[in-house]
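Proteins fold reproducibly. Consider a sample protein:
=====
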Amino acid sequence: MRILVTGASARIGRRGLLAAVAAATAFGLAGLPGPLLAQDDPIRVAGIYTVPVEQQWVSRIHLAALAAQEAGQITYEFTENTSNTDYPRVMREYAEGGADLIVGEIFGVEQEAREVVLDYPDTAFLLGSSFLDDPEYPNLAVFDNYIQDASYLTGIIAGAMSESGNIGMVGGFPIPEVNRLMHAFMAGVRETKPDATFQVSFIGSWFDPPKAKETAFAMIENGADMMYAERFGVSDAAQEKGVLAIGNVIDTQSDYPDTVVASAIWHFEPTLQAAIQAVKDGTFEAKNYGVYSYMKEGGSSIAPLGTFEGKVPQEALDLVAEREAAIKAGDFTVEVDDSEPTSSGS
């Protein structure tokens, strides 16, 4: 489905995106560098997504683009639910249509996408990828959500809130982008629950809420009283079974007020802003934009405790505050472990 977004972004209006767009726009406007806000002639940005724009990871890219459009920096259109086999064709279509910057994710179509990039040297590509930047593709910058800082901090809270120390973790695929967040979360859990055990499973899909829910049910039946909801569907199972959950990438507490204790939030705005500025300056090049997802760059944070305010042990909150300050100051580094995590933390 290809959609051109013009004027007020409220026209999207699906599954609560209206409120999210307003929040993202506020965040984006507050965080934009002055020169960008003052610049004329918005650049043309196209987004290509393999899943619906409501999906956690893609929603952060989508909302950052909507915020940039509201600020007058870009015009924005996008295609969602693009199959891997169709992805190169859509890339070519946007490039030939005059897009200045194409944003998306190519985890399942790396080689084919890179071949397209070489055919359009005057188009800037900012694509989610498991590979680092490569000078052989000078107009391709890569990124992913390095939000291990926030994931680690939510783990501290999860360990403090789990009575049994039996933690269930449901992910999409065991790729570096997911693995590093899981490992960081597990490290955080061990700060407050040193003897914690972990049930780890991957559902083999980026968007299959029913399968994620069933996997979570099995873990809860096996004793988990805290779930790490890397995928949609996990928090539904936790809510139905009366156990707690930790969110990932977006804040879903409003949908699960008695279930989701905390969430690690990804802010794509710093990544997109850096790319927009580079395109406007004529300095866009092969580069790893993943660094803009780090907490010290404003690329990640912990969602407010909201309905769980006053319910998390103060000792855990003090540790979170201490480590967060150290992370932002560069005095504490959360390890990046891209290896596949396994059950019981081994």
User: Anything to note?
Assistant: The longest strand covers residues 260-266. The radius of gyration is 20 Å. The mean pLDDT is 88.
